[in-house]
Structure formats: C-alpha cells, structure tokens
Amino acid sequence: MVRFNGVSKLWRRWLRHQRPAGRLLRWSALQSSLVLLLCLVVAGASSLPWLLKPDLQPGVLAPFNAIAPKDALVQDSTALEQRRSTLVARSVVQVLDAEQTQALKLRLERQLSELQQVSESGSAARVGPVNLSTDEQIWLEQRSDQDRLAWDNGVRQAAQRMLSQGLVSTLAVDQLREAADLQLQGDAIDNPAARSVAGKLLVSSLQGSSNLRTDPNLSKQLIEEQLTKQGIPTIDVRKGDLITRKGEPISPQAYDVLDFFGKVKREPQPLIWLGRFLEALFACGVMLLVMRRERPGLEVRHALLALGLLLLAQLAKLWFQSTVSPLAVLVPPTLILTEGLGTGCGLAWMAIAALIWPLPVNGLGHGRLLIAVAVSTTGGVIAGRQRSRGQLLQLAVLLPLGALVSQWVLLQLQPFTGWRLWGSLNPGLDELSTDALLLGLLLMLSLLMIPMLEGSFGLLTRARLLELADQERPLLRRLSSEAPGTFEHTLMICGLAEEGARAINADVNLIRTGSLYHDVGKLHAPDWFIENQKDGPNPHDALNDPEQSAAILQAHVDEGLKLAKRHRLPRPITDFIPEHQGTLKMGFFLHKARQINPNIEEKRFRYHGPSPRSKETGILMLADGCEAALRSLPPDTSEAEAKDTVRRIVESRQQDGQLRKSGLSRSEVELVVQAFVKVWRRMRHRRIPYPIPARPRHSA
C-alpha cells in the first residue's frame, strides 16, 4: 500500500510538471473542428502509401513455402539496379556548349587584337599575349596588312575546327599544341615563324578550357542502350524449384520471382492502413499537446500553420518518394516554427515529421534522415537564441555547410557502417553540394517568408519584438512627446518588469515590448493623468464626478486597444494593455463616490479586465503598482523597508485575486519582489557631490 501511494504521488508530480506554465487559450468548437479536420487530412496523406501496400517485402520472414509452378525467366531488379548504377559513372554523354564556345572565340579575338598592338608598337614596347622569339618578332613587324588579315583568318579557322570537335579542360599542353599544328592550314601560315606564333596563340586561348556540357537525356539513353546490349539480368527458374521456405527471410531475388508468379498481393489492406492512419492522427494530437504546453497562448492559426507545414512535408515525401531530401523537408519548417512559436514547438514539429515518414529514404539505413534530424535540432536550438534577422541569415548559410560536411563524413564511413546515402549510387561531392544548395535556397526563402507569416498567422519572433521595442517607432515617439510623464513612468516600469521576468526565466523580450505599449491609451487624454499634469490644475477636481473620472481611467484601456489594433500590434503585446490593470479597484474615486453615496456598487469602479493570464502580464501589473511607491520612498529608507512596501502591494493584488490566472507561484512572486527591490537599489545609488565653480564677476 505504501509503495502504491509512492507511485501515485510520483505520477501526480509528473503530471503537474507536464501542465502548461500559463492558462490555456480556449478554442471555440468551430476552431477545434477545423484543427481536427486538418489533422485527419495529414493522417490520410501519411497513411496513403499503405493503402495498397504489398503484403510481402524483401527481408521479411516468408509466411509460406513457395514452389515454382513452371519454368520462367524473371527479371532480377536488384542486379539491374546495380548494373545501372555502375554504368552511370562511365556513361556520360557530352555535347557542345554554344555559350562557352562563343566565350573562347572572344578570348581568341582579344589575343589577336593584343598581338596586333605589339606589332604596331614594337617588340620592346608592349607585353604581348604570348612570348615571341627573335625570328617571330621580326616576322610580326615585317608582315603587311594583307598578310595579317590572311593569317588571322587562318588562326580563326583552325580554332573553329578544334572547337567543333570539342575541347577537354584536362588536355595536356603538348597534345593541344600538336592538335593546333594539325589544324593550321593555308599559305599565310606556311612560314615557320607564322606557324609557330599561331600555335602559341591557339594554345594560350584554349588551354584549360572546355566547351562541352553533359546532356542528361542522351546519357540516360546511352545507359539504356548499353543495358540492352549487355542484356537484362534474369533469374532462371525451373518448375518445382523452392522459391521461399516458411520462416526464412525473403531475398530480393525470391521477391522478384514471387511477384512474377502473382504471389505478392497488392489488394487494399484496410487494417494496415488504419493502423498507420491512427498512428499519424495520434502523432498530430501529441504535437498539438506539446505545443500547447510549451506555448499556452497557442492560437488556432498557429496550430493550422504547424499542421499545414506538416501536410506539405507529407505531400513532398509522397511526390518525390525515395528521392526526397530530408534536409529540405525538415529543416526550413523547423526554423520557421522555432522563430515564431519557440524552440519547443519547432522541435516538436520536427520530431513528429520525422517519426511519421511514410516511405523509406533512398538507401539509408537511416543515415540521411538522422543527419536531417541533427541539423534541424541544431538549427532550432540556435535559432531560438537569435536576436536579429542578420544572425538568422548567417544561420541559413552555416546549416547547409554543416549538412554538407556531415553527409560527406557519413559517406566516407559508409564502408565501415554499411549505410548507403543515395541507394546503390555512390554520390560525389557534386550531388552532396546540390543537396546542401537546395537546403540553402529553401532556408533563404523561409527567411523571406517569416515577415509575411508574422502578419498572416500572428507569429511573434524575437526580431519582431526588438523591432517593436524601438523607441523611434511612431506610436512610442508620439507617447514620449504628447505624454512625457506617462513615457517616463513607462520606462521605469519597463526596468522593473524586465528584472522581474529575468528573475523567474520569463520572456524578457516580450515583457520589455509589452511594457512600452501598456499605457499608450493615455494618449487620448494625457492631461487627465497625474504624471502629465505638471503644476497645472487637476481636471478631475473641476469635473467633481467620481463615476465620470473612473470612466476616463477605464477609457485609457479601451483607447489603448483601439490604438493597438490601428497600429497592428501582435496579440501578445495587445494583451498587456487590459491585463496590466486587470479588474483592480479605482480606490481613490471609489472612496470619493462613497462619501456621496455609501451604497454605490463597487463594480462601477473596477477595471473591466481581464486579469493577467500570463506570467509576463502578471509581473507588469505588480511593477505598475510598485513603481510609484518605490519612487516616493524617502532617501533614508532601508532595503528591508522597501521590500515590505513592495510585499504589501503584491499581497493586496493576490488577495484581490488578480494573479490567480497568471501562473505565478509563491516562490516566483517572492523572486519578483526581490528583483524590484534590486532595481530600486540601483536607482537610489549615491553620487559624489561635485564642486561647482563660482561665476567670475565682471566690473561694470
């Protein structure tokens, strides 16, 4: 019994740790139905390959003894694939590249022009395109214009003949010179010096260059022709041969024979499909639960974005099948979700997308998939700490390079591990570079899409928070100029709230930005708030109506929400405007109203709320209440007295039920109190009095 109680206690403690840190944002029935519908679509796409899945596969245990019913020649698909991969490396068809050919001709023309300048200026006056001997210099200076034109045309014709046959960049210089001598023809080049200069010029123009390019269609056609000549590999089966023995693994050759004789069924298998469908549906549910735990304020559009990206990943896997690049499928969406929803949500998406991979990756083991998961995890963790779009741009360059190096290392370890990255083909650096280049392009595209997704799906990235916190933004500039007292009060609260958030590991960037905008509603009537009145009269005294004064105070919340909507502030920032006041009492005006009418209802003098629903808005409420009290403490106040003052204000908020939905625990509240006092202590630091020299007096 004691053991059972201990296990039950551990279970309850574990459940408590798995609960969201804040209050969950409720979804309506229609919104939940839409999310469920998209989960069903994702599950259907993930399970589609198993709808007509063969009941047998190479490598599985044979469920029966199979005997060949007749003689047959069966195509050996495994040997055919191996032979095709062997031919790929030596069956490359190259054709002339017109652009490169034209570039080489232009290079030759430039060198002909430079050689003419040498002949006009004298041998010692200019450096030419080739080194000339004494006889060659004499010939160059003595030739006539007619001889020059004929010689130039002879060189061009020789170059044309060489280019029409195709040039290889690795051809040795001696071989290229011999080919040039064979192609030089005509009376203008009969002179030994003329022939020697022409050969040197052709070698200088064409050496190390190629005007060929690979034609994939012709290469594929050549491979098929060579396969036809060599013959399709077949398996000679005799009547009565044992194909498979029950309980033994099915070999690839045995599978081909079974498929030939119709022993492999491809009829609908609803039970297998249903299992895969439920598995994918359950995975989607787990992903949403993890994301809501990591981000209690997860909106429906956030969930739809995550599921939409998961659906795109599944469709890409189905469309490209075994040739799909796991890097291209997993890394960019992980980066987008990490930036918009946090590292936990991005990694949860990546884990589910990797687990419900519908088809095996080409080759593997699972080497490429493991590399994609490792790169996605690294990118998600690093992106969650980035504070600018420039750092993300650097990450978009470094991740493909890291993926390229990782795949190359895995390829070198292939003989020892048995992992095959690209099926039966042995990829070179070009194929790996293409994979990394595709990832880099998709990451760049993702970075371009993030600002658009911020507006469409309400994502709030760190970069966006830092942009909104810029005090040069129009709304904050207007607050500082039209309500300077409120702006100064805002900056003081911002310092308190930041330190409080830092003390409990809350979102410092969010609370800093939310603090700057929490009182923007006071712009509708700044003179009605004490911090902006300076030495002038208080308009509330002239109004002399407590209910109207309370309505004006409530209006700063309502007007703030209107301004936030007009300036398209994200919802997490907008929540700070009503929640920093919650449903607090307007005590001063309630007291004045009860002097006039003792029976007046208290709810008329409470803010409309809601009360704080996150740790960040809860901290801001406490900072807003403590700022004036800390500012007004006399210079000789001790730290203990300051802490008691803050604690009394905090306890009054707790007793009023304002922090009930915020998720702040007692220990966290105490840490926030200590953080506030730390900020107050920094504000009240001592300064050395500097002597001010007296102004010199001037005689009349």
Q: Could you please describe the fold and organization of this structure?
A:
The protein has about 700 residues and is mostly helical. It is about 65% helix and about 5% strand. It has 30 helices and six strands. It has helices at about 1-20, 30-45, 75-90, 100-120, 135-140, 145-165, 175-185, 190-205, 215-230, 250-260, 270-295, 300-320, 325-340, 345-355, 365-385, 390-410, 415, 430-455, 460-470, 475-480, 485-505, 510-515, 540-545, 545-565, 570-575, 575-580, 585-595, 615-630, 640-655, 665-685, and strands at about 65, 70-75, 95, 210-215, 235, 240-245. The strands form three sheets. Strands 1-6 form a two-stranded antiparallel ribbon. A two-stranded antiparallel ribbon has the order 2-5. Helix 16 (about 390-410) runs antiparallel to helix 18 (about 430-455). The radius of gyration is 39 Å and the shape is flat. The relative contact order is 0.07. Mean pLDDT is about 80; it is low at about 360-365 and about 420-425.
Low-confidence stretches: 360-365, 422-426
C-alpha end-to-end distance: 103 Å
Mean pLDDT: 80
Output the radius of gyration: 39 Å
Biggest sheet, open or closed, and with what strands and sense?
Answer: 2 strands, antiparallel
Strand element count: 6
Number of helices: 30
What structural category characterises the helix and strand content?
Answer: mainly alpha
Strand order of the largest sheet: 1-6
Oligomeric form of this entry? single chain
| Proportion of beta-strand residues | under 5%
Principal-axis shape:
flat
User: In percent, how helical is the residue content?
Assistant: 55-70%
